[in-house]
Write a structure and sequence with these properties.
The protein has 13 helices and no strands. It is mostly helical and 252 residues long. It is globular.
């Protein structure tokens, strides 16, 4: 039997073929972030128990929601007995950044079946998107893309759940004086700072930080969304300006 003509082969198949080397590379790229992710998960787990959720409720929340910022944003509203629509709206606003992440990842994996896209959407987090796009900035098909993504998202999800479940089970035993929330913030900073790799990202981070402070008083945590959008737009603008400058410099 003759091989299929090259033109008949789906170019995206190259990205989807299991690749052990890409898996190892993705796992190695994600490993440094796992302790921070687990620490952040533990902070959220402790917080859920401290506000009065039962262990089954907290476990259900961390397994179903899997979004630390949205979980933390909703907890004060749950304590205050806010209307359910307010809680859901707040979580939705906080997680709107994942719409941007989806737009960034769609050119790479939009060809997958919808069930696969939903599954990967559930396990994909902020850090995994950033690390993946650092390795594969172009949406063009490339060997090992899917394996690389799996090696990022699966350990990330597992680290979060291990930390969160530990925080839930140990929450009642952790004194508030330990300042675990601040420790979790430091852990996230430690894994985020090394990712500030160029001037565009640095400018985006600086603008996002400034906007988040200035917009802190906005209702329903809208300040977070405004800061994320402002930071991303700034990074894109700076990157475009830098590329244009480099092109002009190369032609002179």
């Amino acid at each position: 039997m003759s091989a299929a003509p090259l033109a008949a082969v789906d170019p995206n198949a190259l990205s989807d073929i299991p690749d052990a080397a890409a898996w190892k590379a993705g796992f190695a790229a994600g490993v440094p972030t796992l302790p921070g992710i687990a620490a952040w998960g533990m902070v959220v787990g402790v917080a859920m128990v401290k506000v009065g959720l039962t262990v089954p409720q907290a476990l259900g929340m961390t397994l179903l929601v899997f979004a630390g910022s949205a979980q933390l944003a909703s907890l004060p509203l749950i304590v205050a007995h806010a209307p359910i629509w307010v809680i859901f709206a707040t979580a939705l606003v906080v997680n709107l950044r994942f719409v941007i992440f989806s737009a960034l990842m769609a050119p790479h994996f939009g060809h997958l079946p919808w069930k696969s896209r939903v599954a990967f959407g559930y396990v994909t987090g902020d850090m995994t998107v950033a690390l993946f796009l650092q390795r594969f900035p172009s949406p063009a098909p490339a060997a090992g893309k899917l394996s690389y993504l799996k090696a990022l998202v699966y350990p990330n999800w597992a680290a979060w759940q291990v930390g969160s479940v530990a925080g839930i089970l140990l929450g009642s035993a952790v004194p508030a004086q330990w300042g675990l929330g601040f420790a979790g913030t430091l852990a996230i900073l430690c894994i985020t700072v090394p990712m500030v790799a160029n001037k565009a990202v640095l400018a985006g981070v600086a603008v996002a930080a400034l906007v988040s402070v200035l917009a802190f008083g906005l209702p329903y945590k809208l300040g977070l969304l405004v800061a994320v959008v402002a930071g991303m737009l700034t990074a894109m603008l700076v990157e475009e300006c830098v590329e244009r400058y480099n092109k002009e410099k190369a032609t002179t």
